[in-house]
Amino acid sequence: MTPASNTPALPQFAQLTIQGEDAEKFLQGQLTCDVTKLGLSYQAAAICNLKGRIEFGIWIKKQAEKQYDVVISADCADALQAHLKKFGAFSKFDTSESITIYPCVLADEPTFSHKADHNTPDDTKAWMQCSIATGNYWIVAATQGEFQPQELRLHQRGGMDYDKGCYLGQEVIARIYFKSAPKAFLHYVKGSDVKNADVKDSATTPTAGEKLDKAQVVNTVATADGFEALVVARPEHLAESELTVLDLPPALQADVARAK
């Protein structure tokens, strides 16, 4: 197997703080999760567009009363700032400038740190490997607006609340949840690098948003003999592909459809 000579750039992340009198109320009308239940641990969540697809994949925690820290892929940070300014124009809260935060693994869990000693490629790659193995996807600019939350199993990670009331895209999301179910959804797979016909002895690791057979890549990480990835696909299509399906954590192996 020819080692990958063209691998995706390591992800970078930014944190911004939202605080003020209306911070909770505003975020409750934006996020898929129930903001009133947030604590000091990062919770995966999303801000969707009106089509019910994830525009901003985030992690959020309540740092203090009326103060929330939000982590997002760095290439989406400016767009998120513009979104908050637009939709929060008449709400009483302030949004900080974004600062760099570093992905790392602590106690076998993917998380983030402000400590400079976590700012290493090894830390980032360990975070990528751990995140992909546990379904901790990250949305980048190339995949904004591509996926519906249920397709990414966000509801199985506590990042969605179907009873909290209205938020952006809620009507579409609720309709899918209560009346149907996604036919394609998140899987953890491994595969061989994709050969580049234009460059001899070259192979590349697929990138976010790319299509592999009938699967769409969410995230990938290069390995010694290929790559591991999170993809959205129909199970029957994966069975016909050259990808090998690996086990996600038990909570993410359940049916994505609403329990009857």
Keywords:
260 residues; five-stranded antiparallel sheet; alpha+beta; 18% helix; seven-stranded antiparallel sheet; 30% strand; Gyrase A, domain 2
The assigned structural class equals alpha+beta
What portion of residues belong to β-strands? 25-35%
Q: What general outline do the C-alpha atoms trace?
A: globular
User: C-alpha Rg, in Å?
Assistant: 18 Å
Low confidence ranges: 1-5, 196-202
Strand segment tally: 14
CATH superfamily of the largest domain: Probable tRNA modification gtpase trme, domain 1
What percent of the residues sit in helical stretches (DSSP H or I)? 10-25%
CA-to-CA gap between the ends? 46 Å
Name of the level-1 CATH class of the largest domain: Alpha Beta
CATH architecture of the largest domain: 2-Layer Sandwich
- Round the mean pLDDT to the nearest integer and report it: 92
> Assembly type of the shown chains?
single chain
- Helix count, DSSP H or I runs of 4 or more residues: 5
Biggest beta sheet summary: 7 strands, antiparallel
Q: What is the H-and-E element order?
A: EHEEEHEEEHHEEEEEEHE
- The structural domain count equals 2
